[in-house]
Design brief:
The protein has 108 residues and is an alpha+beta fold. The protein contains two helices and four strands; from the N terminus they run ααββββ. The termini are far apart.
């Protein structure tokens, strides 16, 4: 008889533990969903604020119209890339170190 009581108790206890685990898992899942939704909302808000406040580094407006120009060193033949505001200035070749006349040595 005591074996039957013990078995019934174990079955009953097992059912209660099973219900508790399901409840616990449901609560944890709901909490996880709530946290995920909160993080998504925070990310959305951060993205919105960054979009509204599009800030660039100082000097961006003055330099955004610059274009890249390729010039060829007359001494060694190396092609060097410069910005359009450097045309008319003498620059040094990164290959041989000689001066490049950017007005005369542009590659088309």
């Amino acid at each position: 008889m005591s074996g039957q009581i013990s078995e019934d108790f174990e079955n009953s206890l097992g059912r209660e533990l099973s219900k508790s685990c399901v409840t616990f898992n449901s609560v944890m899942y709901a909490e996880e969903v709530r946290i995920t939704q909160g993080l998504l909302l925070l990310n959305y808000e951060k993205e919105r604020i960054m979009t509204e406040q599009q800030q660039h580094c100082p000097g961006f407006e003055a330099n955004k119209s610059l274009s890249e120009i390729k010039v060829k060193c007359s001494n060694c033949g190396k092609i060097v890339e410069i910005f359009s505001d450097e045309v008319g200035k003498s620059i040094k070749c990164s290959g041989c170190g000689s001066a490049i006349d950017t007005d005369k040595c542009q590659v088309k």
